[in-house]
Design a protein that fits this description.
By secondary structure, the chain is of the alpha/beta class. Helices cover about 35% and strands about 15% of the residues.
Length: about 450
């Protein structure tokens, strides 16, 4: 019998690291996958709300309202975006997702009075038809981009970076490039597609300011223009986005998901959403534009508590991508044999890049896609968003707030020294904020 001490796993070279080294030695290329980071980082679970007691007066949930509406794009746009809830659907492309998934998300967003976002590759008719409020992304690839669709949008989102891969471009592997996807992107069918990591016609914030002016002229200054950045040098990036003329800054933390990119990007680039929110808010306040330039936060938002904590730290709204996919059925325990064929199981799947999504969300295969009916998917996502909103209202009322946007850092405490330092809120049971005061 082997000695138990000899079977002790190495902290530096655990089984997962050994397996990856063996895979790299066999294949000679980096690993590609979808979904988000699997490593544990400080996050919203490390913060707690300080509900009202003697020193604060709570609101009665059955008799006193707690509003959730938010307006985005009030800085320059003639027609800002009015939303009933501060939870939006993040950009996920047609190509990464199937047409049924995009339609379901649009229907759910419309039912809830919020917006959805196109993602790379252009605007589908299903998505425009089902989405009352649609944000149209302008990405470095410019796949599917045209002035007519810019004018059909309710807002534009200029994507500079994404949380799962800041500094890197997107991927869409050949098995997902169908005739329709290829036609929209002007690409050959069945050939791997890699998007550029930077825009082809500008190289810095001064150039971006000119590009934004061009987009405003195309849309007659009617609609808001968002700038989306991946969370890295957040303070400077937020300030430069404001300087370039953004109506809204969209900040995507490293827990954000992706349809396909290098695993090393997902796990080792960017910073967590928790400190990123605080850094962006500080930049907006330094410039005197907090709440004038709205801040949307994404990257690992899973429930109403996460959303409420982001708002308490100073965000105006949150955006969900991976969580919306899960609500559509991603990783649901059905079609187990199809998960097994991918070498995975429900709850562990990150094979969005393969086009073999067992539940019909991240696929262009007609047979698999038919497993997701838009009507059912819309119902699931609507129910999920409804639950998130109720959770946000419950927490806000417990803190004595009549609007979820009235939540503030004073309503929070941190469970760990790391979270206290990142979010700049006191460690629970103390008035100590690491790095702020002794």
């Amino acid at each position: 019998m082997p000695d138990d001490r000899a079977l002790r796993e190495s902290a530096t070279f655990p089984a997962s690291v050994l397996a990856e080294i063996h895979r790299a030695a066999d294949q000679g290329i980096y690993d590609i996958r979808g979904f988000g980071a699997k490593r544990s980082v400080p996050g919203f679970d490390d913060l707690l709300f300080l509900g009202a007691s003697m020193s604060r007066y709570p609101l009665e949930g059955y008799r006193e309202t707690c509003a959730t509406d938010v307006t985005l794009g009030t800085r320059f746009a003639k027609n800002p975006v009015d939303l009933k809830i501060p939870i939006t659907i993040a950009g996920m492309s047609f190509g990464a997702l199937g047409a049924n998934a995009k339609e379901a998300l649009g229907r759910a967003a419309t039912l809830m009075g919020t917006s959805t976002t196109t993602g790379d590759g252009g605007m589908t008719e299903e998505e425009r038809r089902s989405s009352k409020t649609l944000v149209y992304q302008v990405l470095p690839s410019r796949y599917g981009l045209n002035p007519d669709d810019l004018r059909r949008a309710d807002a534009l989102e200029v994507v500079v970076g994404q949380g799962a891969k800041p500094g890197g471009g997107g991927m869409l592997l050949g098995q997902k490039i169908t005739h329709r996807v290829a036609g929209m992107r002007t690409l050959p069918v069945g050939i791997d597609q890699r998007s550029a990591c930077r825009h082809p016609d500008w190289t810095g914030p001064d150039d971006l300011e000119i590009k934004i002016q061009e987009l405003r002229e195309i849309t007659d200054w009617r609609i808001p223009i968002y700038i989306k950045v991946g969370a890295t040098r957040v303070h400077y990036d937020t300030a430069l986005a404001v300087k370039a003329g953004a109506d809204v800054v969209v900040l995507d933390g490293m827990q954000g998901g992706t349809a396909a990119t290098q695993d090393v990007f997902i796990e080792h680039v960017g910073i967590p959403t928790l400190p990123a929110v605080r850094m962006a808010v500080e930049a907006l306040r330094e410039l005197g534009v907090h709440r004038e330039v709205q801040l949307i936060v994404s990257g690992g938002i899973r429930n109403g508590a996460d959303a409420a904590k982001a708002l308490a730290l100073g965000a105006d709204a949150v955006s969900i991508g991976s969580a919306a996919m899960v609500a559509l059925g991603c990783n649901r325990a059905v079609h187990v044999d199809d998960y097994a064929a991918l070498g995975t199981g429900p709850g562990y799947c990150h094979h969005c890049h393969t086009g073999r999504c067992p539940v019909g969300v991240a696929t262009q295969d007609p047979e698999l896609e038919s497993r997701l009916r838009p009507e059912q998917g819309a119902k699931w996502v609507r129910n999920y968003l409804t639950t998130m909103v109720l959770e946000m209202q419950t927490l806000a009322r417990a803190c004595g707030k009549s609007h979820v946007l009235n939540l503030e850092p004073e309503d929070l405490s941190a469970l760990t020294v790391e979270a206290a330092a990142m979010a700049k809120v006191p460690l629970a049971g103390t008035d100590w904020i690491p790095g702020n005061n002794p």
